[in-house]
Design a protein that fits this description.
about 250 residues, mainly alpha, 11 helices
């Protein structure tokens, strides 16, 4: 990489993103803007940042392997298949999105993801309330919800974890470890298939992706220890502020 300043920015963004994803999520708020600000086209930046964060999702899924249980209305096989199909569709949509269009969409996606993150607890509470009134969700409803969230995740990763936790709560899942396990599994599956499609489509800058992948992995293991010392509300609102600032910069730049 020619510019040492750009290298430092990407390493710092990926390291911090890995730590954030290990604790609370929100890593995409840093990796995508960092890549764009170093001159990577928006669509390629989205794909490259997703590749960089994949090891974290895989590690998280492995860590919860003993707690995983599918939500009511779906079998484990159905969750896997829907995740792969949805991730494929979302990634294919990204391939066919022109950079100019994606540049206009990015700030709105960042705002939506930031709102999801900010109001995640309320969203999960709402989902639990809905589940209390409907304890036997139809398989079709569960499958449709899973598929739509997976498509979103294959296209744009921000806020995915909050959406998945809300969906699982709405479907009637109550065990937090099982919900987190499935969240990590689905994130890993749809991200993995999306990465394959991104690679085949030639929209991954591998030099940046591999450098950021190492930094994100280190961040997940080391940075999370520091992040855990930060009070949860402060960490949450810090991530929200980051999302708002990044969205604002994209609005200005777009």
């Amino acid at each position: 990489m020619e510019n040492l300043g750009h290298l430092a920015l990407l390493l710092a963004a990926a390291f911090t993103a890995g730590a954030l994803n290990a604790v609370a999520g929100g890593g995409s708020f840093l990796t995508l803007p960092a890549l764009v600000f170093t001159g990577v086209p928006p669509v390629v930046a989205n794909a490259t940042g997703t590749v960089a964060l994949l090891p974290g999702y895989l590690a998280g899924a492995w860590g919860f392997k003993d707690d995983m249980a599918p939500p009511p209305g779906l079998s484990m096989k159905q969750v896997v298949v829907l995740s792969l199909i949805g991730g494929s569709v979302g990634a294919a949509l990204l391939l066919f999105t022109p950079d100019a269009t994606f540049r206009k969409v990015v700030p709105w996606l960042l705002l939506a993801a930031t709102a999801l993150f900010a109001f995640g607890p309320q969203l999960r509470a709402w989902a639990a309330g809905k589940q209390a009134a409907d304890t036997a969700p139809a398989v079709a409803k569960a499958a449709a919800g899973m598929l739509m969230v997976a498509i979103y995740g294959g296209y744009f990763n921000g806020g995915l974890g909050i959406l998945l936790l809300a969906l699982f709560g709405l479907l009637g899942q109550t065990q937090l470890n099982a919900m987190n396990g499935m969240k990590n599994l689905v994130s890993a599956l749809l991200t993995a298939i999306a990465v394959v499609i991104y690679a085949v489509g030639g929209i991954v800058q591998w030099q940046q992706a591999l450098i950021m992948m190492v930094a994100a992995t280190l961040g997940g293991y080391l940075g999370a220890r520091v992040a855990r010392q930060i009070p949860a509300p402060m960490l949450r609102w810090g991530i929200v502020a980051t999302g708002l600032v990044m969205a604002g910069l994209f609005f200005i730049k777009g």
